[in-house]
Amino acid sequence: MSEKFVLAIDSGTTSSRAIVFNHEGRIVASHQLEHEQIFPRAGWVEHDPIEIWTRTVQVIEGALNAASVTKEDIVSIGITNQRETTIVWDKTTGKPVYNAIVWQDTRTSKIIDELGGGDQDKYRPVTGLPLATYFCGPKVKWILDNVDGARAKAEAGDLVMGTVDSWLVWNLTGGVNGGLHVTDVTNASRTMLMDVRTLSWVEDIAKDMTIPMSMLPEIVSSSKVYGNATTPVVAGLPIAGILGDQQAATFGQACFEVGQAKNTYGTGCFMLMNTGEEPVFSKNGLLTTVAYKIGDDKPVYALEGSIAVTGSLIQWLRDNLKLIRTSPEVEELALSVEDNGGCYFVPAFSGLFAPYWRSDARGAIVGLTRYVNRGHIARAALESTAYQTREVLDAMEADSGAKLAELKVDGGMTANKTLMQFQADLVRVPTIRPVVAETTALGAAYAAGIAVGYWNGEQDVIDNWAEDVRWSPEMDEKESERLYRNWKKAVTKTFDWVDEDVVE
Fold first, then answer.
1. Please, are residues 437 and 411 in contact by the beta-carbon 8 Å criterion?
2. H helices within 253-344, ranges in order?
3. Alpha helices (H) along 160-288
4. Which tens digit of pLDDT belongs to each residue from 390-428?
5. Gap between the Cα atoms of 175 and 178, Å rounded
């Protein structure tokens, strides 16, 4: 019998990627294409949903060709996606009524204020989420309120909404010709419309946000056969796994025991800690989210610390400031100086996420003197990722009452050894990168493979996981605490920037 594989579709914030995995959880081949980042106004971030769909088909074809396999060699398809990015489309025409509003977008700040009436935690006891521009529900309301004819079409039952997973599954399974309208529990838990305990939509919250219930997808497990693809390159293959990108990385990192945590370094940074089969509600600025749900098993929950800007800050240095030509050059530039020179870079481009949830914050570089040069700024930009991670880790330990023994890390920025060493110095525990750093796509592959019996369950994931590199703390603890204390001071300088005098 010829070898079989699982195909994972990873629809991220900056690119679409397809990866073919073998039974050992190793990458056979992959293909990746970027999509356009659209910035109509300050604070607004959009993607073209049609471009995302087109890129998805292209990367599937590219990955299968690179692996020298056909759909006959694939047992199932898993999907992982940038979460909270929201699409509203006409189910009769298949066309989006507006661009996808990306998770980083801050245009819904006034809607958030109106919904909360000063109470940021209005929906937290039900949804596990604070009122913030990050989440989907207010984005849907904005589209219905601002796109001509959208509300009338929605109330007539012609419009549907979803995160990127819903958009891809709908198109993969036929689109206007019977496409499935579903989302898994992990993505649904990011809409601010789902009861995190019952895993069902909350009609009262949808009503508050003036969203017709007919727009919402069916909530499904993270690992089960939802239906078969009709898109020619994968026609007939079962789509059997969906996980939001950070939950997928948690799954791919085999964080199956209560207290295990991982941090993913991508466009933003996201740390999740497994809290077991009962949701834990944070008192320290973290999110309560669904980690995964396998078939008919009980859901597993996590505490999450979400950081808006990490890898995208390095892109900003490259594209906006032209400080570097390629992203990897930032490490070389940072190493041209011995330390940050007293310079701290707080990248609150989309406000501050965990643990602050301050949509009024904006980015700041502080501690500048005549001594500071471009190397110091590059180093401060890198270090900001580690500082923000330490803040989330502190909150996580306070909420859980547990001291983290080690931090599993993954994502593109883990290739930066300088950053990873500084991260270990700040969190004071070993920082460990696995052999397969693309754990987001891997987690989606595992979910899809488990659903069809290709893998037997979580134990196969644990058995496949392997350590690649371990960074242990080297810096004097007093020095790392001094740096962190100054970082905390720098963060306060970003507060209260956006007010009635600042038009965005």
1. yes
2. 311-319, 329-334
3. 164-172, 185-188, 203-208, 245-252
4. 999 999 989 888 788 889 999 888 989 999 999 999 999
5. 6
Whether the CB-CB separation of 254 and 439 falls below 8 Å is answered with no
- Phi first, then psi, for residue 320 (nearest 5°) are -90, -45
Q: Residue 51 corresponds to which amino acid? A: E
- Taking Cα atoms as reference points, which of 290, 136, 147 lies closest to residue 215? 136
Instruction: Tokens for 504, please give them.
Output: 């965005």
Nearest alpha-carbon partner for 53 in 129, 150, 165, 189: 165
Mean pLDDT of 48-73: 96
Average pLDDT score over residue span 296-319: 91
Surface-to-core class of residue 299, CB atoms within 10 Å of its CB (0-12 exposed, 13-18 middle, 19+ buried): buried
Supply the pTM of this predicted model.
0.86
Q: Is the peptide bond before 430 cis (omega within 30 degrees of 0)?
A: no
Pairing of strands 5-11, 15-21: antiparallel
Write down the pLDDT at residue 501: 58
| Alpha carbon distances (Å) from 403 to 260, 393, 425, 454, 471 | 10, 9, 16, 35, 18
Query: Both tokens of residue 45?
Result: 């971030």
Rounded Cα distance between 430 and 428, Å, is 7
63-466-261 Cα angle (round to 5): 95
Minimum mean pLDDT range among 71-75, 187-191, 407-411: 407-411
